[in-house]
Amino acid sequence: MEHIFQSNQEKILTKYLKTGTTTVGIVVKDAVILAADKRATAGYYVAHKHVKKILFINDKIAITTAGLVADAQMLVDLIRNEMKYYQLSTGMPVKVKVVASMLSSILHSYRFYPFIVQLLVGGYDTEPHLYMLEFFGAVAKEKYAATGSGSPIAIGVIEKNYREDMSIEDAKKLAVDAVSAAMLRDTATGEGIDVAVITKDYSKIETIKYNK
Prior knowledge:
Number of domains: 1
Low-confidence stretches: 1-7
CATH superfamily: Aminohydrolase, N-terminal nucleophile (Ntn) domain
CATH topology: Glutamine Phosphoribosylpyrophosphate, subunit 1, domain 1
CATH architecture: 4-Layer Sandwich
Structural class: alpha+beta
CATH class: Alpha Beta
Number of strands: 12
Order of helices and strands: HEEEEEEHHEEEEHHEE
Distance between the termini: 46 Å
Largest sheet: 5 strands, antiparallel
Mean pLDDT: 85
Number of helices: 5
Strand content: 25-35%
């Protein structure tokens, strides 16, 4: 049984590594910033040029998705339903940590036939938070993170320039610069950048058009 499971894991990892995108998340004092490119690929084929990889699940929490689009869409639908049930059951607003924990539980429960995704969960409750989730359910709280095939390039840009005392605008520019750098070197990253800013008082998302 262990050998079969290991073989299945290897097939999943091989399939996963073929998927491509770049998403990043950055936490500063008053906000969390999420950014992602807009290209969807199938092998070397550019399947779509206007994909939304930052999905808001309420007005103060969003998820970035890297991996299989169908898996990501199903997970977002699942977590939205879980959030509604949580709010009805407790009468309390959902915190970012709770969303990350819910997603971690879902991913872990499907570990034998996992969702092929990497997720960033970013949002603001009493303060900004960012969590990174791997497809077997591992979850970690981060100050900054990157996922997808372009993540090695993007994370290098962020690590070199990140400061916790950055302004929101500077952090937003850094997120865009990180994804832009990945677009120059990663064939699976391209077309444009969606960037979301979530603070105590507002959340907004905008698209920066950029043709590779």
